[in-house]
Design brief:
- Two copies of one chain form a homodimer.
- Chain A is of the alpha/beta class.
- Chain A folds into four domains: 79 residues, Barwin-like endoglucanases (Beta Barrel); 47 residues, Transferase, Pyrimidine Nucleoside Phosphorylase, Chain A, domain 3; 224 residues, 3-Layer(aba) Sandwich (Pyrimidine Nucleoside Phosphorylase, Chain A, domain 2), CATH 3.40.1030; 81 residues, Alpha-Beta Complex (Aldehyde Oxidoreductase, domain 3), CATH 3.90.1170.30.
- Chain A is 41% helix and 20% strand.
- In chain A, strands 1-5-2-4-3-6 form a six-stranded mixed barrel. Chain A has a four-stranded antiparallel β-sheet with strand order 12-15-17-13, with helices on both faces. Chain A has a three-stranded parallel β-sheet with strand order 7-10-11, sandwiched between helices.
- In chain A, helix 3 packs across helix 4, helix 5 crosses helix 10 and helix 7 crosses helix 14.
- Chain A is globular and about 75 Å long.
- The termini of chain A are far apart.
- At the A-B interface, helix 3, helix 5 and helix 10 of A face helix 3, helix 5 and helix 10 of B.
Chain lengths: 501, 501
């Protein structure tokens, strides 16, 4: 039937609102598809709504350029069946292996907005439950890379590293990149912002330089200076991955197949030839035990073989935050202090040098870890860091003191004497987020005590920083409620025979 | 933060559109929840969109009464976490058994719009893949019934029957109800409209009487006359079921647990004490084989035991349509003709009497099927039918000739001579829908030949009726393309030795 168009920017999905009477005429129900013929044709999701007058079609603005039509135009609208890829999603629900072509079609249909949130959710749930084998994951990663932009370097090899995440305070990226680039290798590193964490690498890097590089700039700077600290989101690398994350997020799932394909797709898009995977392992992270970490390492190496990337894995300690700082300016300051030559926190220095060392060894250096430490201690890494910062429109003469955390501070002290038996990453992340991290750049935590250390009653455990008093107060409340530090005496439990009178 | 309200009827879900800058301030991403404080508070799904000006919140109209606010009001908006029931959905993804309370909470959260389409889709996909045991399904059915209206009869027992559907032309409901009520038993039958079929019971019953009865009228008429042919959708029986169907529909799945719970929840809501389940079995239906049918029968009887409903099951033949007519007026006419005493199509008469007979036997009659046939042949069923029609504001003196199918007719003839080897229900349904069924009341099919019958070349196989020439033409095209009748000679394949020269 024909309806009069009215465009409204109401949805990220291509959506059409039609009056119930008209919808019945078309034979369409909520969440069905209809085909809309303007100058060109497009498919949209049907929403049956009284908001549309009889004879009217309210269309999401994203359809306007697709169908080439204006408000008031007469559009022909007919029922349309769902995309073929829904069949492949059902096939995965039935725990069948998908072909390369089926996976590619699903990815393209997500990209083109032909699959709705309902269908993407079913896809992710099916992946979560039934999984994929390495061949499928490789095809999935390839399809996600192929449906986005790619960077093609004139200079090879292209080194890369990636942390699976889940551990707060993991501020090693600028250090690793600077060391590796100082050694003459190229490491065009793209990072992400926080999804559920307190502060992603891009969230703290942007406190001292631009992070939005287009592909041409990323290529130019990397080839010239040897490295970048770019935000992956500023390029159109494997864009389907970001679309899928939006649906994953409310479900609180991250299916193994999706996670592996997501990571590898970005590496394919950037043309990585050599990759070190950091697998943080510990309670409260994505990878709770060494056994799980080893299984991931196996998967990554198998994927590397299928996709022609040399991949090595590092299983790293993640039972507590890396270093002392959590939050954008606090992490940036700690990171730059280490580049300036400060000798602690040693957990950050050690992790950065170990990972940089693995890359250096891939690049032909002997004793990578010591070599990395040498480059850091010599000041060569700091010099390289300055070059990269300057190339990304930051201040070449940057100093750690330039990074000033939020003006509001609250101390969290130990209620008893004893030893730090455990620290909850998850609770610290929640507290840092409550304090305003990562959008409030001065917000975050500074941790004074780490696992195994002796603490006296009333001694400082950590400080909460923030740009807003209200948020810092709220974070302090959470700290009191959650008690992220477990402080115990050496004597954990006393066992004695029952007393006799 | 505080934003200025603007209400638009843009979504069936409670939705809030916020400018990207404001969303970052709140710390919310697409598909996150926010809490909105008007005079009262409500949770809504966040959509980050440039459609909202900075400082503005565009809210779906369904939120207006919930938060008690008007356009221009200043609303406090903060980040909110998802409902607890998302955890239970994840538990089902992990193939764990859910408690009664967890299932109840999921159902309540769907009802209250606290679970989004994304989450409902994940729930259905998890049910499809991991299933539920009978205890969970019983709790699920109970929860769906408890979250809607219920009918409480003063008269007992309450007989009911239900067809799992999937076979076109299944117009037996008014006949069964009339026979059973004529025998003095009470059968307050609620039916549905077509979801994916060509014509639901309510779609054809509404061609000769009202189908929208509220609970009070349904009770009154049933207790007085002995039966109704009501549309379930006009009451608020197990409303969550209808909400879930909207999400199931684009996925093309109907998880066993959901289907069983859906059927039984409606029976609990209406207070059925005795139920006959019709399980149509045959190629192209939900139940392809007798083995699958038996498994369903076992499930239904187990559920009945758990929920204190006496359930008996009938596995019925469904390899081809029941009777000759498909489509609202055509089915109504065929149904009334049989009540008037016409002796064919015998498949409809036999099925109606067999099912009515099972109910009569539950009610203490001997030889139910013969008794049912007796009541039909005596005219008592027609008399009871008229009483029910009149009670539902139809014409007591209704005659089958009052139902006149669409004025546009196309014949579909056999391209060859032979025997009808098979008929595709699925294709016939698509053709009937293309002809306009069920919204065009005169649209549908009239089938002249059934399985096993001899057909000559050029002989009529079926006719397509419709209220619109364009739709009938389109349906005819589909008929030519699909060839729903498989006509073969008796000799299916000739095998001969290779010829020698």
């Amino acid at each position: 039937m024909n309806l009069k168009a009215r465009f409204l920017d109401i949805s990220t999905e291509p959506l059409i609102l039609i009056n119930p009477g008209d919808a019945a005429q078309i034979g369409g129900k909520d969440n069905d598809r209809v085909k809309i013929d303007g100058k060109r044709s497009a498919i949209a999701l049907l929403n049956v709504s009284d908001f549309a007058e009889p004879g009217e079609a309210i269309l999401s603005a994203n359809l306007q350029s697709k169908i080439v039509a204006s408000d008031g135009d007469d559009l022909r609208i007919i029922y349309a069946s769902g995309p073929e890829s829904v069949r492949s999603i059902r096939k995965k629900m039935d725990n069948k292996k998908l072909t390369k072509e089926e996976i590619h079609d699903i990815v393209v249909d997500i990209l083109e907005n032909r699959l709705s949130k309902i269908e993407i959710s079913a896809w992710l749930t099916a992946l979560y439950i039934n999984g994929m084998d390495i061949e499928e994951i490789a095809a999935f990663a390839r399809a996600m890379a192929d449906t986005g932009d790619k960077v093609e370097f004139d200079r090879t090899p292209v080194y890369d590293f990636h942390s699976m995440g889940g551990v707060p305070g993991n501020k090693i990226t600028p250090i690793v990149v600077s060391i590796v680039a100082a050694a003459g290798l190229m490491l065009p590193k793209t990072s992400s912002r926080a999804i559920s964490s307190a502060c992603g690498t891009s969230d703290f890097v942007e406190t001292f330089c631009d992070i939005e590089l287009d592909a041409a700039n990323l290529k130019r700077i990397s080839e010239k200076v040897g490295g970048v600290f770019a935000w992956g989101g500023s390029m159109n690398l494997a864009p389907v991955d970001d679309m899928v994350i939006k649906v994953e997020h409310p479900l609180g799932i991250n299916p193994r197949a999706q996670m592996l394909a997501s990571i590898i797709s970005k590496k394919l898009a950037i043309g990585a030839t050599h990759l070190v995977m950091d697998i943080p392992t510990g309670a409260g992270t994505k990878v709770p035990t060494i056994e799980v970490a080893k299984a991931y390492a196996r998967d990554f190496m198998d994927l590397g073989e299928k996709l022609n990337i040399h991949i090595e894995c590092a299983i790293t300690y993640a039972d507590q935050p890396v270093g002392s700082a959590i939050g954008p300016k606090l992490e940036a300051r700690e990171c730059i202090r280490i580049l300036e030559g400060q000798k602690h926190p040693s957990s950050v220095i050690e992790k950065a040098c170990d990972l940089a060392g693995m890359i250096l060894e891939m690049g032909g250096f002997a004793n990578g870890s010591e070599k990395a430490r040498e480059i850091l201690d010599s000041g060569a890494a700091m010099k390289k860091f300055r070059e990269i910062v300057a190339a990304q429109n930051g201040n070449y003469d940057i100093r750690s003191e330039d990074l000033v955390p939020g003006e509001f501070v609250e101390d969290v002290i130990s209620p008893s004497a004893g030893y730090v038996h455990s620290i909850s990453n998850k609770d610290l992340v929640s507290i840092a987020i409550a304090a305003g991290s990562p959008s409030d750049k001065g917000a975050g935590l500074l941790i004074m005590k780490k696992k195994g250390q002796r603490v006296e009653r009333g001694e400082l455990l950590f400080q909460i920083y923030g740009d807003s008093k209200a948020k810092v107060d709220r974070a302090k409340e959470l700290a009191t409620k959650y008690k992220p530090f477990d402080i115990e005496g050496m004597l954990l439990k006393k066992i004695a025979p029952p007393r006799t009178r």
